[in-house]
Amino acid sequence: MENKKWLCLVTVCMIITVVCFSCDYENVQTTITKLPSKPGYPPIFIKQMTWGLTGDQQVNVISNIDSTDFTPQSSREYVYRGLSAIYYKLQDDTLFIYTPTIAPVPQDFKIPYKVIQIELSNPEAMDLIVNDNYKQKGLTQIGPG
Q1: Where are any strands of DSSP class E within 82-132?
Q2: What is the domain range of residue 120?
C-alpha cells in the first residue's frame, strides 16, 4: 500500500513538471505601440511581450521592426527584461524612457529622437504606480500594465 502512495505522488509530480516546462511559452501576449517617425527614418515601435504559465516572463523592446514574433537583439534594439513597469514620454525630439534598469544603447539602431533613459529607484517607481500618478506626469505605460 505504501508503494502505491509513493508511485501516485511521483506520477503527479512528473505530470506537474512536464506541464510547467512545456507551457513556458504558452499564453504569449504582445502589444505594439507605433511612435511618430520623421522622413528619412524607419518607424519606431515600442513592444512588450509577456509569456509563461503565469505570465511571469516579460521583455520590453524599442525597435524598428513591428513583428509580434520577435527575439530581442540588444545590438539593434533597446531591450528591457523583467516585470517592472516601464514608462515613456515623447517630447519634441526626445524620447524619455523611465525604467528601473538602464538598457545598453544599441549600436545598429536608427531613431529620429534623442533617447534619454531615466533610472527609477523603487520609491520613484512606486510613486508612479500609485493612483496612476504616471498619467499626471504626462507619461505612458508600455503595454497593458
Answers
A1: 87-91, 94-99, 114-119
A2: 2-141
